[in-house]
Design brief:
Length: 287
């Protein structure tokens, strides 16, 4: 089952709370609650148990949307896609499910979930624009009830990967057809502050587009025309490689670029935390 217009609002992946509520009456719809806080890993699940969208299932950034940390691969390496697919099946999601991902409203964790769904070739998935905050502001129902769905057999589909590694990023330095985007806050990009990773700075040649600048003042994702303006300095025909600190918030910029009409957008999944795990890789600062 594939819906081509349910994104509404002229957007491919983002769906309004009212549209999501209407769609929720479809028996194929499944909500995934992706709330997570890096400073408090239990936050998302605790909030889920306090209140969530009816029939939603909680999905954890560390346990379900990331793999085990190793020497390389970054702070949130991608999980094994077969393991991820098996997890989806275990909570009652099939290849025909219409999946709506949501988080608190900043979209980064929902975007990470949607990126993984794209990697396994899922056909119909959305992000709830504004997250559960938008749902609540529209006075839509929430619950504390936990519902167990009958397990399904989820079969990942082979699809063209949009994931690149540090070697591809290194080669992009000399490629005039590529643009490298750093999605972190400007002070981390410039190397003034680095609260998480061991080395401050950014990957050489990268330009800075802070991922939160894809959001409007009302907390919703910007409209397509606003996103086109936001990225207007980047030629549409370029290959764009996006990174952040660990491959999570960069997913928001990937989706924003796609919504703005850029046809060739890649994600450096290991991102900056993977880049600096290789001693030979150089780092730049702009102080």
């Amino acid at each position: 089952m594939k819906l081509t217009s349910m994104g509404g609002e002229g957007m491919k992946y983002f769906i309004s709370a009212s549209t999501a509520y209407t769609l929720s009456k479809n028996k194929h719809v499944r909500f995934l609650d992706c709330r997570f806080d890096l400073s408090n890993p239990n936050y998302g699940k605790e909030e889920f148990h306090k209140s969530h969208i009816p029939a939603a299932h909680y999905i954890d950034l560390n346990k379900n949307l990331s793999g085990a940390k190793k020497q390389h691969g970054g702070r949130h390496p991608l999980p094994d896609l077969n393991t991820f697919s098996e997890f989806l099946g275990s909570i009652g999601i099939s290849n025909d499910s219409i999946i709506i991902c949501y988080d608190s409203g900043t979209h980064e964790n929902a975007a990470r979930c949607l990126m993984l769904l794209k990697l396994i070739g899922h056909q119909t998935m959305f992000i709830l624009n504004g997250g559960i905050d938008s749902w609540s502001k529209n006075n839509l129902p929430t619950t504390t009830e936990l519902i167990m769905m009958e397990p399904k057999n989820y079969h990942p589909r082979e699809t063209e990967s949009f994931i690149v590694d540090h070697q591809v990023v290194s080669k992009s330095f000399e490629d005039t057809h590529s643009v490298l985007i750093d999605s972190r806050e400007d002070i981390r990009y410039r190397g003034e502050v680095e609260p998480i990773d061991a080395i401050a700075g950014h990957i050489p040649t990268a330009v800075n587009y802070f991922w939160k600048n894809t959001l409007s003042e009302n907390g919703l994702f910007k409209e397509k025309d606003e996103l086109k303006e936001h990225f207007s300095a980047i030629p549409n025909e370029k290959e764009i490689i996006v990174y952040c600190g660990s491959g999570v918030t960069g997913c928001v910029n990937v989706l924003a670029l796609e919504e703005a009409g850029y046809p060739n957008v890649k994600l450096y999944a290991g991102s900056y935390s993977d880049w600096i795990s290789y001693s030979e890789n150089k780092v730049e600062k702009k102080l």
